[in-house]
Amino acid sequence: MECPVCKAMIGEDDLMLCPECHTDMEIFTTLKRFEHNAWRHKVWIRVLGVLLFIFMVGALSVYWFLINPNTSNQSVINELVYQQQETILKLEQEKQSLVAGSLELGRQLDSLMSQVQMMSTAAEKTETKTSATATNAANLTKPPQGDIIHIVKKGESLFLLAIRYYGHKDEYLRIMKDNGIKNPDHIWIGQRLKIKDAKINN
Predict the structure, then answer these.
(1) Contact indicator for 189, 152 with CB cutoff of 8 Å
(2) pLDDT tens digit string along 68-116?
(3) Is 11's pLDDT higher than 70?
(4) CA dist list (Å): 44 to 38, 49, 52, 55, 110
(5) What is the pLDDT of residue 190?
(6) CA nearest 100: which of 148, 142, 38?
(7) Angle between helix 172-179 and 158-166 (nearest 10)
(8) pTM metric for this prediction
(9) Once rounded to an integer, what is the mean pLDDT over residues 151-157?
(10) What is the mean pLDDT of residues 146-155?
């Protein structure tokens, strides 16, 4: 059985909760049962319609071939016609009862489908909110694109860092300005330097 909300395949039809999205599967099992009953009602309606037609043809045949002026035969024919009419009336009543039952099943199916639609909409909204929350959290924790923090290592200078991150040694002035450095030779190992809008992020 397939979960209508998350489309996950469920191996057992008697499971009450979807193992993926934890949707209550009882309502969908009931819906499936109603659909099966509605199909059976339609089949019975068609069968009764065929039987009704056969009885009507039979009644007309009996009336047509057995009628004669003889009073005794006429009474037999009348009795047969009456029995056929009674049978037809009963079949009509059963047909009307099945039609009414089918209409009631249709209304129940519409109600169940409305509930399924509401559950699907609620699940989609929850998934959208969760995705938006995760995206916002990622955006809050993600550093600005192109801005990095470089920790000075042995043998490095502002000139080398300018070439490395901007592609030209003259950009060392930019690194000095962004970090408040007055003398380009006064940097030390372990110093944290802010590199804004770095073009080479390695």
Answers:
(1) yes
(2) 445 456 677 788 888 888 888 888 888 888 888 878 887 887 888 888 7
(3) no
(4) 10, 8, 12, 16, 22
(5) 93
(6) 38
(7) 110
(8) 0.30
(9) 92
(10) 88
pLDDT band at 9 (very low <50, low <70, confident <90, very high): low
The amino acid present at 91, given as its one-letter code, is L
User: Is 38 in contact with 62 (CB distance < 8 Å)?
Assistant: no
Token pair for 128: 């959208």
Partners of 151 in beta bridges: 192
How confident is the model at residue 141, as a pLDDT?
41
* Token digits of residue 131: 């995705």
> Residue 37 is which amino acid?
N
Q: What is the 3-state secondary structure (H, E, C) of the chain?
A: CECCCCCCECCCCCCCECCCCCCECHHHHHHHHHHHHHHHHHHHHHHHHHHHHHHHHHHHHHHHHHCCCCHHHHHHHHHHHHHHHHHHHHHHHHHHHHHHHHHHHHHHHHHHHHHHHHHHHHHHHHHHHHHHHHHHHHHHHCCCCCCEEEECCCCCCHHHHHHHHHCCHHHHHHHHHHHCCCCCCCCCCCCEEEECCCCCCC
Rounded Cα distance, 52 and 40, in Å: 18
Please state, for a pLDDT cut of 70, what percent of the chain lies above it.
70
